[in-house]
Design a protein that fits this description.
Number of domains: 2
Structural class: alpha+beta
Number of strands: 6
Strand content: 5-15%
Number of helices: 8
Mean pLDDT: 87
CATH topology of the largest domain: D-amino Acid Aminotransferase, Chain A, domain 1
Length: 187
Amino acid sequence: SDPATGEKHLMGEFLKNAQGEDVVAGVRTPMPIAQMEQEFPEAFEEFVKVCKTLEDHYRDMQDMEFTVENRKLYMLQTRNGKRTAQAALKIACDLVDEGMRTEEEAVAMIDPRNLDTLLHPQFDAAALKAATPVAKALGASPGAACGKIVFTAEDAETWNARGEKVVLVRLETSPEDITGMKAHRVS
């Protein structure tokens, strides 16, 4: 399943002529897992079967590590895959629909601390993928925000008083920024 959306399809990447540390180091660009079908058709076919077996056994989305040596597939490890709150809900519902989990088990799979993120506006995943960012930063709150960028709490208050939607951008927030955070209005 897709760890961002929960959509049910094989997801991942692989490197040719590489070991685990090559993948972790990020010195080479991995290929999408779908390309493995062309490169190693027999190993890919076996990998698809193993994925189903492991996900059926653990009754959850799996994050798997593997290697192919001399065109033979070797599974190295598997663990329950990390996912967004949106994906967690979709996967849990799908597991109930497929008869793999009870409703009670599915509810227990959801971390209630992550549900808050679902209550906030989100950017469309396809639009994000197609967009060219002008900057990147760490969000101080969950969800999507659009508005005029302001750099001080005072400017946030001033623009907000005029009815403008604002996004307060800071290198670090401090207690003095609380009035600007409260004035922070977005669409």
